[in-house]
Amino acid sequence: MATNAFAAGAYAAIQNIGAKGAMAKAAPVANPQGMNFGSLLSSTLDSVGDAGRRADSQALAVAGGKANVVDVVTAVAESETALQTLVAVRDRMISAYEEIMRMQI
């Protein structure tokens, strides 16, 4: 039950970041493939949120006796991995920003 609350809180936080985050207001930076960084980040946030929702729906299905426990464990593991990856990327972005800010002109 604590895992469900954690997953629900995690993807709710991700959805809030995507909806209210600074990237929603940032100017687009185009790459050679035509996709800008803001839309790439937004789609990644959406996919992490979707993984959390899948984990929650699987947990509710197993509680109702309609799903397999293995499916729940797999969905929760996917959600956790997606969230950990997102946090690692965020940390690297912050580190890169701080390094750029330390550069002397």
Please tell me about this protein's structure.
The chain has one domain (2-102). Mean pLDDT is 77; it is low at 18-30. The chain has helices at residues 2-20, 37-63, 69-102. The termini are far apart. With 105 residues, it is mainly alpha-helical. 76% of the residues lie in helices and 0% in strands. α1 runs antiparallel to α2 and α1 (2-20) packs across α3 (69-102). The protein is elongated.
Alpha-carbon distance between the termini? 53 Å
Overall tally of structural domains = 1
Assign a percent range to the helix content: over 70%
**Biggest sheet architecture:** none
Unreliable stretches covering 5 or more consecutive residues: 18-30
Shape: elongated
What attributes does this structure have?
mainly alpha; 105 residues
Layout of helices and strands, plus pairs?
Elements (H helix, E strand, L loop, with lengths): L1 H19 L16 H27 L5 H34 L3
Helix pairs in contact: 1-2, 1-3, 2-3
Question: What would you say about this model in short?
Answer:
The chain is mostly helical and 105 residues long.
